[in-house]
Protein 1
Amino acid sequence: MKNLIASILLIVSFQFAKAQDLETILLAADDASLLSQNYLKPAMEGLMYSMNGSWATTAKVHKKFGFDLTIGVNASLVPDKAKAFAFVPSDYSYLTLANNETELQTVMSEDDSEVMVNVKIPNENGNGTYRVVSFTMPGGITEDLPVNAVPAPVVQIGFGLPFKTDIKARFVPTQRYDDVEAKLLGFGLQHDLTQYLGIIDKSPLSVSVLGAFTNMSVTYDMDDQDASDNVQVINGEAEFKMNTWTVQALASLDFKFLTIYGSAGYNSGKTTAKMKGDYILTYDIEDENGNPAGLPEDVNITDPVNLDFEANGMRATLGMRLNLSIFKIFADYTFQNYNTATVGIAFSVR
C-alpha cells in the first residue's frame, strides 16, 4: 500500500512542480494573482472532482461490524477548453505579451512552450519613469504524465454500524517526495434505503444514500534556484488546501460474482492556493520612451498570493465490480464537468 500511495503522490507532485516557476509570475505585481489563478485553475478544479470519487462501489451496506478496505485512484480528465486561457489585455494593468499572443497555456496543457510577458509599472514617485521587466510564463506539464488527467488517491476503510449504515474513512498520511508534501483525510456515511421498500429488500436491487467530505493539502517548497530570474525567494512555499463534499443516491444489482452500480448526485468543492514567504523583485527603470532612467530597483513583498477556487455541479456514475469472495476489483466512470475514471481493489467482509 505504501508503494501505491507513493506512486500516486509522485503523479500529483508533477502537477505542483510548476509551482517552482510560479515565483517569476510575482513580477507581474498586482496582475500576479489573476495570472496565477488562470494558470492553475484546471489543476485545482480537477483535483476537487477527483477527490469526490469512488466513495462506494455498491449501494448495499455492510452487515453490523462488517468492514472493507479499498485502494484505488481517481483521475479527472481535463477538458480541451481548460488547457488554455485567453489573454485579454484589458484584464491586466501592467502586462503585454512580447509576441502579441492571444492565449496562454494552463498547467494542464500538453504544450510546454513558455511565453514572454512584458511588465511596465508606473513608478510611484511620479517622475514619469517605469519599473520594467520581462519573464517567461510557464507552459503545461502533461507531456510528463501518462494521461492528461488530475489524479487523487483512494485509501478507504468502511465499517458496518447498526441500522444498516456504513461509516467510511479515507486517509493518506503525510507523504513527501522531493520538495512536495501531501496528505488526505475524509469521512462518509452511507445509509440503506432498501429496508424501507418492502419486497425489494429480498431482490438483488439495493438502494442507499451517501454523504461524504474530503480534505487534501499539498505544500511545495519554493527554492531560489535561478539567480538570474529577477526574483529572490526567502523561505518561499506554495500551499494548496482543498475541501470537497458530495451527496449521492446509489443503486446496485448485487450478484454473487458481479455487481453493477450507479449513482447520481451533487459535488461541491473549495480550494485555497497561497504563495507564502518573502520575495525580492528586481526591476529596471526606464522612461516613457524605453530608455534607461536609473539604477535597478528592488521591491520587497510578503505572502503575495492568496487565491480561491470552486467546483460545483451534478454528477452521475456507472460502474462494475468483480466479486471474488472477499476480494473485489472495480472500475467506474463519472460524468461531470471533469469526467472522472476510477479503478481499484477492495477487500470486503460483510
Protein 2
Amino acid sequence: MHRARRRFDLSAVAELLLGVPTVLSSLLIVGLVGKALTPGTLWLLPVVWLVSGVIVFVPATDKVLAVVAHRLRRPTPTESDLLKPLLDEVCGAAGVDPRRFWLRIQNSREINAMAVGGHVVGVSTAALRLPGPQLEAVLAHEVGHHLAGHTKISLLRWWYELPARWTVWLVVMAGVVIHAVGSAIGTSGARAISIALVVVLAAAALVVSPWLVLVPVVAPLLALSSRRAELHADRVAAELGYGPLLLEVLQRWVKEGHDEQRARAGLRSRMLASHPSCAHRISRLHNKK
C-alpha cells in the first residue's frame, strides 16, 4: 500500500478563498459592534474575534460539534471492537497514529460516514452492517478528508462566517415579524409601512453583508469545491489500496438508486450538491487503476 500524501489539496484552498467575502463581511459587522461597545478601542473586538479562530483547533471543539451539529455518539464496546481494528489498518497504511482520530456513531438507517473537525471519524449504524473490508474502505475515505485538511478548513470558514450569517438571519426574522404585523393590522397604510421597513432592512443587510450579492456565484463554486474534495478523498483511499473495495460500496449505492434520486432533483440541485454522483466517482476511481 502507498502512503497518503498529507497536504492541503486544491479543493481545500479553493474553499478557503471562496469564504473570503463572507469572512470580510463578518469582520465589518464585528468592527461595527466594536465601535458601538468600545469606541475608544475600535480594534479590540475585531482582534479578539480573529484570534478566537484558534478554537477550531482545540480538540474539545470537535467533540462538541460531533454531538451538537451531527448528533454523533460514542461507540458501544461492540461497535468499538468492530471499528477500531479497521481504523488501525487504515492508519497503518497512511502512516498516521490511529489515536489521532476518534470514532463516533450516527444513529441512521442510511449508509453514511463523515469526518468532523480534525479528529472525528463518524459512521452510521447502517454502515456498520457493511462487510468489514468495505467498511474499512469507507473509513479510509474519511481519513482521506482529514489528511487533506478538508475538515479543518470547512470548520474554520464556518466559524469566521458566523457573524455575517447571524446578521442575515436576524434581518430575515425581523422582516418576517414586520410583515406579519403589517398583515395583521390589515390597513393599506400598515402594509405599505411594513413593506418599506422590510426594504430598508434588506438594504441595511446588503450594506453590512455585501457577500449576499455574491451568493448566486459563490454557492455553486463552494458546492463544486466540496465535490472535488470528495473525489480527492476517494483518491487517497485508492492510494492506500482501498480502490476496489470503495468501488464495491459505490456500486452498491448505485443499485440502491442514489443516482436516480439525484437525476430527479433537477439542474439547480445538482449544481448545489455537496457530493458528486456515484457514477462519476466510480469513473474517476476506474481511471486511477
Protein 3
Amino acid sequence: MSTTPVTTPPRGLAAPPEALDDDPPARVLMSPIGPSEVSPTTRVVTALQIARERGSDHLVVRGDGEIRAVAEVDLQRHLLEAGVRPSRMLDPVSAVATRVHGVGPETRRSRAAELMLAQDRPVLVVVENGEPCGLLDARSVLRSLAGGRDHRPTP
C-alpha cells in the first residue's frame, strides 16, 4: 500500500486585501471630526475632559498649518508623569499631540491599516479638499472586520 503525502497550503489570505471586495473606503469607517477637534492652546486637563465627555479616544489638534492628534491615554500619561509638578495640567495639548498621516476619504481599509502600522499610531485623519473631515482609528478598522456589512462605528 502506498501513501501519498498531504500538504497543507500556507495560512493566510488567498489574495491581498486590496483585491478583496470587502475593503471599504475610509469615508465609510471614519468618525466625523467636528466634535473631536480642539485648539492647540487647549490645556491638557481640559482636553482630557473633552475627550471623556465626547467619548473620543482621540482628539484632533490643528495649528501652524499641520494636523496632529492626541490619544486620551497620552493625555492621561502626560498628567501622571507630572508627579509633584501639577503645573503640567496647564500645559497646552500641542505639547502632547503628535503628527499623524492624513488620508483621503477613498483610501481603502487595507491601506489605512498599513499606514497605522508604519507610523505606529492607531489613528489617521481623513482629509478632503485640504480640510480634515474625519478620524479613522484602529478600533473602527477592527470593528469593520468583525462587524459584517455595516462598517460604520457605533457612537
Protein 4
Amino acid sequence: MDPVTIKDIARALNLSTSTVSRALRDSYEISPETKRLVMDYAERINYRPNPIALSLKGSSSRALGVVVPQIANNFFSQAINGIEAIAYNRGYHVIIFQTHESYERELANIQQAVSRRVDGLLISLSSETSDVSHLKALQAQGLPLVLFDRVADELNVAQVVADNFGGAYAATSHLLQTGRRRIAHLTIPPYMSITQERLAGYRAALEQYGVPYDENLVRYGTFGPDEADQLVEDLLSQTPRPDAFFTASDRLALGCLTALHRRGIAIPDDISLIGFTNLPAAELLNPPMSTVTQPAQEIGELAAERLIEQIERKHKASPPSTTKLPTGLNVRDSSRLVKTVV
C-alpha cells in the first residue's frame, strides 16, 4: 500500500494541504474543531508523518535529543517510552544519550546533540550537575529546552516533574499511622531537586504528627555500588535503632531490602520499608514492597509535548512553567500494621 500523504487527507476532508499541515502540527492558527477533524481522520487511516521528507523542507532536523542519567533505570526507560510515542506521532525521531550520573558526560552529550542539529533537548540532570551554566548558554542561543524529573529552579524553562513532596509526605504519614516513630530516610545527593522535595515531604509529615526531625536518621547516597548496605549498617547501630526505612530511589529501596534480609531483620515485624520507585516487580519481592509510584511515561509524554510546542510555535508557545504530576502510594506487606508496635 502506498503511504498516506497530507494531500490525501486534504482531499478527503476538502481542506487545503496547508490547513492540514498546520492542524497536524497543532498550530495556534487552526481552530480546535478543524484540528480535531484532521487528527481524528489521520488516526483513523493510520497516517504517520515522514520525518525525512519533513526535514528536507527546511532547516529542521526533525530530531529531539534526550539526555538521561541511565536508560537501565526503570523510571527513565518508561519516560523514554512516553517521549518516543509523542515524537513518533508528530514526525520526529529521538536521539538518546546517557550521562551515567556524570556532569562531564552531560556536557559532552549535549555538545554531541547540538552538533547533530537536534531541534530541541529534553534533559534530566545528572547527580553531579549543580552548575547549569551550560544549559543557560543553550537557552540564550534559542535552542528549545525542557527539563524533566531532575530539574533546576534557576533555569527559566519548561519543567515536568512528579509530586515528590506529596509522595514523600504520603509515605511517611503512612508509616507514622502504623505506629512507627524512628523513620530513617535513605536518599540521594542533597543538592538534587528530587532529593530536596522528598526530604521536605518527609519532614512535613513528621511535623504534622508531632515527631521531631532527627538529622541522624537521614543518610545521603552517592550512586555508588552497594552503598545501601553501609548506610543501613550505620543506621542500625544507633540506639534506639530505626523502626522504619523510607528510601528515595529504586536502587536504595532494593539495597535496603537486601541489607535488612542479610541481617535477619523481619520486614515489617521488626522494621517497615517503603520505596520511592517505578519498579514493576515491587509486588513480587519478599515481602511485597510498599512504594510511591511516579507517572514516568506521562512525564515523558508531557515533556515531549512541551518541547515540540516550543519548536513549532515559538512565538505562541506557552510561557515557561513547571508542571507537576501526581504520585501514588501503593501499600503492600512491607509496611503493613504490626500490632506489637508501640
